[in-house]
Amino acid sequence: MSIYYHLPGLFEFYDLYKAFLPLWRNHREFFYDWCEIGSIYGAPGDCIWGGGRVGFGDAEPKAVAALMEEFGISARLTFSNSLLRKEHLADTRCNELCSIFEKGGGVIVHSDLLLDYLIAKYPGFYFVSSTTKVLTDFEQFRAELNRDEFSYVVPDFRLNKQLDKLETLTLAQKQKVEFLCNECCWFGCYDRKNCYRNVSQKCLGEDCADHVCVSSTAQKGYRFSEAMKNPGFIGIEDIQNTYAPAGFHHFKIEGRSLGSAIVLEFLLYYMTKPEFQLKVREEIYLDSSLDLF
User: Fold this and answer.
1) 186 or 71, which is more confident?
2) DSSP state, 155?
3) 208-217: string of b/e by CB count within 10 Å (b at 16+)?
4) Looking at residue 285, what is its pLDDT?
């Protein structure tokens, strides 16, 4: 049984992964033998095709690509802007990124306009249907899984525990499902699409007010301890005992907008054996080149 994690911060947490990945390769005894890194996803801060979260990554793209190639990890560009128009497709910066990452890489996409453009111009990519589509209706989700353009589909986290319906998927459909595990958003949120739309506007450089979260606990920010209480949370016991035996093997960890320290906690919780978590934490924290907060 292999479980594939899709990790946040391709550009945002380059320095963290530069320290973590050698540990991952050279000390596999520290980590669960049933898990693999399926991809690392993200986008630089200056990408108008970006979406999901307002990007802040500033790592040099060729250095990022070289790191992913060195460790044999698929790089995914998070180009999930929902508001793109035809004139945006010619953006030089985003096209340059596609040229750098096309070999073995993927793109997380929302816009069908962008999807069609990328399929035609960069046939080396595989494509992931973004969770920013907020697919909460199960039959719409099933239809998305049936689209040949997508290798993976990330449903809204509110579908994570609808196990009776998930069991009705075919094996081929199950192999395309990529669950968002650690969402901290209010489970009853009715404004998620507007939140993502606001991010898309900002990535395009449009003058718009900040989105006001409708959750009563929004002022607390992201806390992993709170995310674990979310009805949609998927923990490692869920993965091992429920999802993997049912034929699901892909799990996405969110965190692009957070700090390196909390992303490290995700790597420890989901991938690292308990008896080695302190060892891994020390190795990372003692790397003087890292700013973890």
Assistant:
1) 71
2) -
3) eeeeeeeeee
4) 86
